[in-house]
Hints:
About 30% of the residues lie in helices and about 20% in strands. By secondary structure, the chain is an alpha+beta fold. Helix 1 runs antiparallel to helix 3 (about 30-45) and helix 2 (about 15-25) crosses helix 3 (about 30-45).
Amino acid sequence: MDEKLRNMVLAFRMSELQSLMVFSGKSKAGKKTDLQTRAVELVRIDSSDINIKIKDLSNRMYKSLGSNAEATSITSTQGASYSNPYTDPIPPSPPPAHKLVYPTYPDVSLKKLPFYKIEETLLKPCSLQPNGNGRFQEQNFTFYLTPGQSSDISNSSYRSEQGKPEYRKQIQMRFSLLETSCEQEDNFPSSICVKVNGKLCPLPNPIPTNKPGAEPKRPPKPINITPLCKLSSTTANYINVSWAVEVGRAHTVSVYQVDNLTYKDLLDQLKAKGQRQPDYTRALIKEKLADQDQEIATTSCKVTLACPLGKMRMNAPCRASTCDHLQCFDAQLYLQMNEKKPKWVCPVCNK
Length: 351
C-alpha cells in the first residue's frame, strides 16, 4: 500500500472524505473514523483513477487552507514523513497506458429480473478498465454491508429440500455490456474469471458452439455470491475480476442485495392486479369476427380450455398484454417453467 496516499487520506477533513466516497461509489454516511477506514481500503485497492482523485482532493484542501494551515496540519497529523502537495512539485501524470479508457461509473441500466427484487445497490455498475495494452486484464472491486443489510441477509437463511443452506435475501453480482442507450441484459466478458474474497466464484457453464475458433458464450444470468461474502458490517468484501479485452466491447460489473422471489410470489402479484374486464374481451372477439376482408369472412374463433403447456384445464388463465390472440395459458405453470429456465416467451405465438 502507498504510504504517501494513506497519509493523505488520513489528513482529509469530512468534506474530502465524503467527496472521495461519492467518487468511488461508497456510502458517505458515518463517523470520520469510519470514512477514514473506507478511504484506507480504497488506497489498498491501488486503482489509478482513485489515486489521482486522492491527490486532487489533497491539493484542493491545502490550497483552501493556505500555507500556514498546511504546516500545522502536516506537523500535527502526519509527522515529518509527509510531503506538502501544495509546495512540492506535482507528481507526474500516469503514463498513457494507465489513463482511464471508460467512465468509472457509467450510466448503465440493467434489465429487471422478475424473480429478483432489488433492495439495495452495493456496487453500482462500474467499468472494467483495461490497464495497459495486454489482452488479459485484471481489476479489483470492493463493497461494504451496513449492519442492517448484513443482519437481513443472515436472518433470511434456510435449508433447501436437499439440506443445502440457502438465502432468501441474496448478494447478487451482474455483468453487462457498457452501453447506455437502452437497458442491458446480463453479458459476460470473454475468458472471465471471478474471485470473491480470494475464493473462486462459480459461473454459468459456457454454451458449446460449432463455430471454429469461436469462444463458447456463457448464458446471461446473475450470480449469487452470498455464500462467498462476509456478512459483516466491519469488514470489506473484495471482488477480483480477470477477463480478455475485446475490440469495440466494454463491460461493467455491479452488486446488489436482492430478494429472491418464487413463482408463488409472482402469481400472487399477478392475481393482485385483478382480472381484465369481460367487456374488453367481448370487444376483442367482435373485432376478430368483423369482416375486414371482403373475400374471406371469419365466422368463428376457436380457443381451448386446456393449457398449451401442460395440456390440462387451466386454473389461472392468462395471456400477455402484448399478444393479440384470444388463446390463454395457465399462469402458474408458465411461471414455474420460467423459474427453472427463464425464457419469457409466449407459448401460443412464441413472441
